[in-house]
Amino acid sequence: MTQPSRFPALLILGTMLTMPMTYGAAQPAVQPQKAPAPRAGEPAVPGAVAPPAGYVIGPDDVLGIVFWREKDLSADVVVRPDGMISLPLLDEISVAGLTPAELREKVMVEANKFVEDANATVVVKQINSRRVFITGSVAKPGAYPLTGSMTVVQLVALAGGLLEFAEGTKIRVMRMEKGAPVALPLNYKTFSEGKNLRQNIELKPGDTVIVP
């Protein structure tokens, strides 16, 4: 009796072995790439924050000044009320009014007096110089950090809202413009009715909102 050929079975088995496995054990997931580790000798700079557009350094801001391969020059510093910081070897440096990029160039110029090819990084760790103030008939008067865009009404809400007997029609924003104080009015009642929406201006660092 003729034996059945094993060729079809072998062909089928070979085909199965070469087919991609779409069933059975799950394929391992692709692992996310890790951030590259700091280069040898490079100080870590944790706790950085993203400065808002137009940010310049001011008093009470906390900065990290990191020099590549120069740990003795690196430091975390707080900007003093006079706008100065103190760095190892570099001593006193005026920083108020500079952007982080401008400060980086400045410290590298100073550092090149002591080391060759100084390479620095300036990291903003805390922004304490950008504040607005609200006083008067609100639940929580005081100073509030201005880390992004904020309007008068948003600050009122952040301060807990108007008190029962607040004169919301007579709110004023006190601001310094060209060295002189100006008062910018806001009528909370008309704004809440959807009228004269432009009076709800965006606040600037140093503004004081007064709620009678």
Structure description:
The structure is a single chain. The protein has helices at residues 7-18, 100-111, 152-158, 188-192, and strands at 62-67, 75-78, 84-87, 91-94, 120-126, 131-136, 142-145, 171-177, 180-186, 208-211. With 212 residues, it is an alpha+beta fold. Among the domains are: 62-126, 2-Layer Sandwich (wza like fold); 131-211, Roll (Outer membrane lipoprotein wza fold like), CATH 3.10.560. The chain is elongated. The N and C termini lie far apart (112 Å).
The arrangement of helices and strands along the chain is HEEEEHEEEHEEHE
Low-confidence stretches: 4-44
Mean pLDDT across all amino acids: 82
User: Which percent band covers the strand fraction?
Assistant: 25-35%
CATH fold category name of the domain at 131-211: Outer membrane lipoprotein wza fold like
In DSSP terms (H or I, runs of 4 or more residues), the helix count works out at 4
Overall number of strands: 10
What is the CATH homology-level superfamily of the domain at 131-211?
A: Outer membrane lipoprotein wza domain like
- How far do the termini sit from each other? 112 Å
A few lines on this structure:
It contains 4 helices and 10 strands; from the N terminus they run H-E-E-E-E-H-E-E-E-H-E-E-H-E. 17% of the residues lie in helices and 25% in strands. By secondary structure, the chain is an alpha+beta fold.
Keywords:
212 residues, alpha+beta, wza like fold, Outer membrane lipoprotein wza fold like, five-stranded mixed beta sheet, three-stranded antiparallel beta sheet, 4 helices, 17% helix, elongated
